[in-house]
Amino acid sequence: MNKKLLILIIVILFLVGLYFAGRLASRNLVEESGNKVTFKGEDGELSFEESGNLPEGFPGDFPIYPETKIVSSFSAKGEDTNGTSVVWESKDTLGSVSQFYKVELSKKEWKIVSSFEKEDSVTISFEKGTVSGFLGITKGEKGATTISVTIGTKEK
């Protein structure tokens, strides 16, 4: 996957998220439970959570960097595609986290489609069966490394 295609996927996922949020919020069907807010509508549902657990639908075989803290997560369910996104923080270096994902994704049979590295960030796109997504690793605030994963699953 080339850089332009990756940027296009990111933009599309963002716009889809805005679309669902707008459609669902306009129906005023909102459930709040602790740190989790869920918007429901006839086209699907969109949930946001500010800490804690992995969102429903996050692939069980996707590698998770050890000793991380979930900062936020969201999930969206649509007619034929479901999406999840999680942001973690780690005290480890960007290089350590990046190397972990390059090795572990392959070990768990996730295909790395593309990888783009800069001094302070790494972006990896991946796929496995009907699941695809991207991983962003950046230097965060106060020395923390931020890990952001966005995954889309096509329903069969």
What this model shows, in words?
With 156 residues, the protein is of the alpha+beta class. The protein has helices at 3-26, 94-107; strands spanning 30-33, 36-41, 44-49, 69-77, 81-90, 111-118, 121-128, 131-139, 145-154. It has a 9-stranded antiparallel β-sheet with strand order 1-2-3-4-5-9-8-7-6, sandwiched between helices. It is globular. The two termini are 23 Å apart.
Keywords:
156 residues; alpha+beta; 2 helices
Reading the helices and strands in chain order gives: HEEEEEHEEEE
Q: Per DSSP, what share of the residues sits in E-state strands of 2 or more residues?
A: 35-45%
**Major beta sheet, specifics?**
9 strands, antiparallel
Low-confidence stretches: 26-30
> What's the rounded overall pLDDT mean?
79
Number of helices: 2
Strand order, main sheet: write it out: 1-2-3-4-5-9-8-7-6
The coarse overall form would be: globular
Count of strand segments: 9
For the CA atoms, what is the radius of gyration?
16 Å
The portion of residues assigned to helices is: 10-25%
Question: Based on helices, strands and strand pairing, what is the structural class?
Answer: alpha+beta
Task: Please report the distance between the alpha carbons of the first and last residues.
Answer: 23 Å
